Amino acid sequence: MLKLALTAAISMMLVFEPVAAEAKSKGRTAVVKRIKVKKHEPAKLVASDNRQRLVRRVIKVRGKRKVVYEQVRRAAPALAILSAGDLAGLNLTHDPLALRSSVAYVLDQDSSEVLFEKNSSVALPIASITKLMTGFVVVQAHQNLDEILTVTEDDVDHHKFTSSRLQVGTRMTRGDLLHIALMSSENRAAAALGRNYPGGINAFVAAMNAKARELSMNNTHYVDSSGLSSQNVSSARDLAKLVSMAHHEPLLRQYTTDPNYVVEAGGRALRYSNTNYLVAMPDWNIGLQKTGFINEAGRCLVMQAMIQGRNVVMVFLDSKGKQSRTADAGRMRRWLEAIKPPVIPAAAAAGVPVTVSAGAGVGVGAAPLVQ
């Protein structure tokens, strides 16, 4: 009797206890709950909600097979996280190239002629594009790239809890940390670079902001060396200035465009890859680049590239979709290869405010959010 009672109790627990499991189904989370079903009754219990169904399962209870039914309800799609650009309505701005980026700016590097612009004066979060200024400050300060630095707990991301392959205690040269920070957007590497600046991270951030003022990046402000904070903001016009100046530094050109790199960390070799796959494409001639992403910023990309014999700086901010920023770069390149000035943008027909520069430039604009 005791054995039967115990078996019954376990069976009841298995029948009524919610299952602590989640399953992925077409990008949605399926919430599973086990329910008690009488024999021949499952068909009656199929819910009218088309997101809910019953699944037959065979389990073992004390070594014996038992048939149970699980009520599976597919969760509604999660609400999309709005970026700062979305909240400002920049995603509603149309352009003649149908870019997925809310902000775009393309500049002839040699003549400073604006070739294309869209919301280019709006200051938005820039995510890991911040690291380009981090690298610029390190190189301009002529810090010893062979000095061994140690990753500490202070370099761990307690803001967005991003992961890292650099364990606390890892010892590495400043040059290698700079390399993987720029090429692979390694957050702990960028944090360690800022922390090991004379005066510490606060002095480093102050140097970043001083450099921004020196370059007349008036819509730019930094609060950390990694870009994890959404308070690191800039405009596309400002970032084009940074890209143009950073392109003069051979080390930044090399580190940002290497397809991959191997570092020694704790006695083991770690292979890092570039976050921008375009650097390995033979049909691209990229001189400098940096990617970035946090939810508040969307997908971001800055690049210097040679297109049709012309040195071009491209900036794309708040792009929607994992590959959309590089796809926008491809759209822009094809457009630049095809245009013959002057070009009158098709966006004008849609009632979008458009300006045309003295050359072939196209502009679609909005007022800046931050001055």
UniProtKB/TrEMBL annotation:
Active site: S128, K131, S185
Keywords: Cell shape, Cell wall biogenesis/degradation, Hydrolase, Peptidoglycan synthesis, Signal
Binding residues for substrate: K290
Database matches in InterPro entries: Beta-lactam/transpept-like, Peptidase_S11, Peptidase_S11_N
Domain called Peptidase S11 D-alanyl-D-alanine carboxypeptidase A N-terminal: residue spans: 96-320
EC numbers for this chain: 3.4.21.-
Biological process terms in GO annotation: cell wall organization; peptidoglycan biosynthetic process; proteolysis; regulation of cell shape
A molecular function (GO) term: serine-type D-Ala-D-Ala carboxypeptidase activity
Leader sequence residues: none
Family that this chain belongs to: Belongs to the peptidase S11 family.
Name of the protein: D-alanyl-D-alanine endopeptidase
